[in-house]
Amino acid sequence: MNDREKKVIRSFMMVTQISISMLVPIFLCAWIGVWINRVTGAEVGFLIMLILGIGAAFRNVYMLTKSFYAADMKKEHEQLEYMQGLKNYSKEHPEEYETSEKITERNDD
Description:
Helix content: over 70%
Shape: elongated
Number of helices: 4
Structural class: mainly alpha
Strand content: under 5%
C-alpha cells in the first residue's frame, strides 16, 4: 500500500469515527429522554437529554480532531521554527549569503 492509499483510508476512518462519535450520544440521550418522559410524564426530559447528547457529540468531535491533527500541527510548528532559524541566521551572517546580483556580476567579469 502506498502513501496515497494510506491517507485515503485514514481519512475515511476519521470521517466514520466522527460520524459514530456524533450520532451515538445524540440518539442514546434522545432515547433516554423519551424513556424519562414515559416514566415521569414530564415533557422536558427529552429536551434536556437531547441538549446533553448534542453537547457530548461536539465534545467527542473536538477531542477526536484535536488528537488526530496533533502530530501534523507539531510537524508544521517545527518547520516554522526551522525556517525562522534560517532567516535569523542569514540576518546575523550576511557575508555567507550572496545575492543573485553579486553572482551575476562575478560571472560577467
